[in-house]
Amino acid sequence: MKPLHHLLGIRELEHDQIKHLLDLAQPLIGLSRRPIKKAPALRGKTIINLFFESSTRTRTSFELAGKRLSADVINISASTSATRKGESLLDTGHTLAAMQPNVLIIRDTRAGAAHFLAGFLSPAAVVNAGDGAHEHPTQVLTDLLTLQQAWGDVSGRTITIVGDIAHSRVARSHLLASARMGYHVRLVAPKTLLPVQVERFGCELFTDFDAAIEGSDALYMLRVQNERLESACSFPSVREYHEAFGLNMRRLGLAGEHTVVLHPGPMNRGVEIATDVADCARSRILDQVENGVAMRMAVLTALCGSGLAGSRKRSGRHHGQAMEAQGTLL
Length: 330
Ligand code: NCD
Description:
Blueprint: H1 15-28, E1 46-51, H2 57-68, E2 72-77, H3 89-97, E3 103-108, H4 113-118, E4 125-131, H5 137-151, E5 158-162, H6 169-181, E6 184-188, E7 204-206, H7 209-213, E8 218-221, H8 238-245, H9 249-254, E9 260-262, H10 275-278, H11 285-305, H12 319-325
Parallel strand pairs: 1-2, 1-3, 3-4, 5-6, 5-8, 6-7, 8-9
Helix pairs in contact: 1-5, 1-11, 2-11, 5-11, 11-12
Bound molecules: N-carbamoyl-L-aspartate.
N-carbamoyl-L-aspartate (NCD) binds near residues 130 and 264.
């Protein structure tokens, strides 16, 4: 398996690397449930969270993941960074790199921002925490961990993703992950919220939500991304959107007993998902949040463990595996 130097997108990951991250994350779920939520794995490492777009789950889980593994974690947001004074991403990147971080996590409205930084930030590792409508790899890895908990294995399963596909980096990363991990994706959306030529990803397309439900193992609801909608006419009204594309109890009743409900958050209750569905026993939405911390711990461990994240390359076995073998990870 190739060592992980950066985590820029699912596109850059191989099946074995995804599997390795899932295997690393699984035992780390327990760490957050302990009375003392601390392990020494990343002691002495520096992690910078650079968030130019709002975030609750992703930013907090990266911060907790780093801190629970004993790294020093710094948070920078758009409102407190020098970009407010006109500094370019290139200069911000060089400035932060001069402080010798091991990992730089970036969320940005611009697609390609993480790839851009990775091009010159070496030896620091770069993690894409969401770049415009392009990719959101750690959300999808978190979803796979959650689905693995529900089913054991995702391969051969069908995940139906519903809503604002056109603006969703989560949907895009799932389409890429489905090819690596052998699951099927169905997309349900109004025609105005489907990207052009999306069928080349090999997924099934539906404009009728009811017709897509039978045979779905997961119903994955997406937020309508008002901040990325260029016009207000992508669908007639919130009420009509909910009627046609919202998940309510009637629709959930059309699904098999085993079918689970996911949402990456933040939810628009009453728009893409009814409140009783969001809070019902088949909803795994809060499991996604909990697993997000473990998956981000796994990503940070794999990156720092590769020996390339701001320190000299180690020979032989990857440091992450060595730490596990010595039992020091937990
Ligand atoms: C998603 C995102 O930011 O892309 N949320 C998240 O990271 N938990 C989805 C969204 O914003 O709708």
